[in-house]
Amino acid sequence: MKINNSIFLIKFISFIFVVLALIPVIEIKIFITLAISLTVIIFSKIKQNISYIKILLIFFLLLVIKFFQGNLYFNEGNNLLIFNENSKSFYEKYLPINMFSFIENKYEFYENNSMCNEKDSKCWKSFDPKIISTKSSPSFLRYSPSMNLQKNKYSRKLKNLDIYNLKSARISEVNNLRYNYFWGEKFDLVRENLPFFIMIEIPKFLLDSSVCWKGNVFWEQNSKNFKHLYNEIYDCKLIEENDINKKIYGISFGKSETNDRLNYLYGSNYIGDNDPLDNFLNSNELVFKIEKNLNLLILDYLIFFLIIITILIFINFVFKFNYKIYFYGSISTLLFLFLVFYSEKDLFYGFTIFIGGNDGILYNSYANNIFHHLQQLNIANFLLGSEEIFYFPSSIRYFLAIFKIVFEDTNYGYLLIGYFLSLIILLLYIKIFDFKFGLISALLVICTRLFEGYGASIIKLLKHINMNDAEPFAIATFLICLYIFFYIYENRDQKNSLLNFIFGILSFVTISLRPNYLPTVLLLAIIHLFFLLRDNKNQQILYTLIGLSFTSLITLHNLYFGKQLVFLSSGHIHNTGASLSIYFSALIDIINLNFYNSENIERIIIQFSRWIRPGELHYIFSFFLLLYVFRYKNIYFKIISCLAISQHLVLLIFEPSGRYAYLAWILNIMIVLYILQETLKYITKIGKLRK
Predict the structure, then answer these.
(1) Is the CB of residue 419 less than 8 Å from the CB of residue 334?
(2) What gap in Å lies between CA 395 and CA 387, rounded to an integer?
(3) pLDDT reported for residue 618
(4) Which of 67, 275, 452, 453 is spaced 20 to 30 A from 246 at the CA atom?
(5) What gap in Å lies between CA 124 and CA 391, rounded to an integer?
């Protein structure tokens, strides 16, 4: 796959066209279309003679389709309902009177049973809508703001409505730090059970469609007069002429997780089948759906079909048709989404309620804050990133905010990174191994949990994507850097200015996502620069260094906003298990023969035992293969071994286990697989000689 400046530019513009055709990407069928289209664009060859007039015509056709589609959205408002002494007056101002009384009555269940302290920020009783947040969406509004760039009458505009719990409602407000409730006790209000409302305003085009629900709704009769309607079982009401422009509220006090999941999160006795809490949640759930009439359904599918046809025509105007690329692109996308559905259904359906107290809710809350400032074109606060000095080090907050432009309240943006991670593993393995062995090994990493303990499992990494952890993103960008390095090394007779710049930029991105990858990224960069210097590629060195220089932006951010010189993060001390000073002090203790009373030696032993537990012999064996690989001549695996060793050295200083160790062991497993490949070759060769 040849890459140069013009090819990159044409493919990038094609990416933009596909995104514009599909935006907003908030449904799984749209995500599938996006993933397949991008795969085809990546691997297809560009036509020599492109008709730009035809491209302009297809772009104009797309604008017409999107304009027509935009008239088929209706206004929706939503918000969470956290009733306590701080917030009741806020809700009373704008909720219908009988609806407010209904909610207040329901909240007596929690007020009478919950024992958490209102002074504890982990308790729902501490919620105060008057507090202005600097770490999430700045203020609590009548309708929670959706994460999109449109000007909305209420929360957002929707094409369809199908609500059965808080997750399916996709209320982004829930993933803000002001609801960081965790370690709840029985009868405490927890994040997965937060009450909420959905309000829709009926437009004229929904005439003769139906509003269907189970549970409690409040249907507007005339101005400020709402009728309470309760359906014990799912039932529908036809939308009539006098319902046009009326509002309908649906109220949920139900749950979004199974009892097993709730007990896993909050203790084995949090909820039981048919206990008072379970009965309360089940009796107050909401199922709320718009069932469109047949004409509207046909029109929806027709518009989606026309958008797909428009994308196909555009791609075939620009790229040479190859049915194999379409076939393998479709298969790879569907296989990936099967894995997603198997491992993390929340990712598949597009929305996760992040666990309280974890990194996911923190970074998403920061992303909501950043996106708010982007909407307001407040560039200074956008760049601030919710922290004057980065304490929580990952730049994933900025990427999550940017994803919201296309993917709105869903997590499909990060899921797309997971898909690209699968692709780069496949491409990298095919490049560095023999084709068949590389293909089989890549499929084992992508499709199975065989190497899950090493972090070399897409299924495992999908779980971290679902939790908004930065490691899958950082691993993806680092592996792309590694692939680019090998590509440039193999094509050193070509001008690779753009690729060298991208290598530098992605190195910066990797460091910004996971600062503990810094030594390994810099080692790869040094090796890359050495080969460029050896080949007298001085201009290419400059492009690489320009890309790498963006790393200084992290330090400049801390200096500009925080007035302190902090290189990457001020919070690194909390992930330091055994600092270099401890190793130095331990050496002094050894010289002084102080083996038994040395706290320094004891701390290092603890760090080593957390890195590789003494009983886990396969990890010890795998690590020593990093040295054994140097007996082979393959330069690729010698470099990968050096990179793995550098990351293992990081683990002897900082947090050495769990997701923090994934990159080291992912590189390590490549070495193990290479030695296995060479061993199998040797056995086959001996077998042939004996015959």
Answers:
(1) no
(2) 11
(3) 87
(4) 67
(5) 26
The single-letter code of the amino acid at 490 is: E
Instruction: Kindly state the DSSP code that residue 642 receives in the 8-state scheme.
Output: H
Summarised one tens digit per residue, pLDDT across range 330-386 is: 999 999 999 999 999 999 999 999 999 889 999 999 999 999 999 889 999 999 999
State mean pLDDT over 29-36.
Answer: 96
CB neighbours (10 Å) of residue 153? 12
> If we measure between CA atoms, which residue out of 222, 263, 266 comes closest to residue 245?
222
Cβ(395)–Cβ(14) under 8 Å? no
Q: Give 461's pLDDT tier (boundaries 50, 70, 90).
A: very high
CA proximity to 33, closest of 333, 441, 395: 333
User: Could you count the other beta carbons within 10 Å of the beta carbon of residue 587?
Assistant: 12
- Please give the Cα distance from 201 to 588 (Å, whole number): 74
Banded pLDDT at 536 (limits 50, 70, 90)? confident
**In the numeric block, which tokens belong to residue 602?**
């004891």
Radius of gyration of the chain (CA): 28
Give how far Cα 233 sits from Cα of 212, 213, 214, 274, 646, Å: 10, 8, 5, 19, 61
The number of residues making up the chain comes to 691
Q: Looking at residue 629, what DSSP letter applies?
A: G
Closest CA to 383 of 403, 369, 404: 369
Angle between helical axes of 518-534 and 497-513 (0-180°, round to 10): 160
C-beta separation of 400 from 364 below 8 A = yes
* Long-range Cβ contacts of 433-442 (<8 Å, 24+ apart): 433/673, 433/674, 433/677, 434/677, 437/673, 437/677, 437/680, 441/673
Bridge partners of 74, per DSSP, are 158
Residue with tokens 């409505």, as numbered in its chain: 161
In whole angstroms, give the CA distance from residue 517 to residue 482.
Answer: 13
CB atoms within 10 A of CB 279: 11
574: amino acid identity, one letter:
H
Cβ-based neighbour number of residue 547 at 10 Å: 20
pLDDT at 101 over 70: yes
Give me the phi and psi of 211, to 5 degrees please.
Answer: -100, 120
**Cβ(138)–Cβ(369) below 8 Å:** yes
What does the block give as tokens for 176?
């803000």
Distance CA 540, CA 659 (A): 34
Rounded Cα gap, residues 533 and 526, in angstroms: 10
Instruction: Describe the crossing of helices 471-490 and 518-534 by its angle, rounded to 10 degrees.
Output: 10
Between CA 347 and CA 336 the distance in angstroms is: 12
| DSSP count for the chain of H helices, then E strands | 28, 8
For residue 440, pLDDT beyond 80: yes
Q: CA–CA separation, 468 vs 414, rounded Å? A: 8
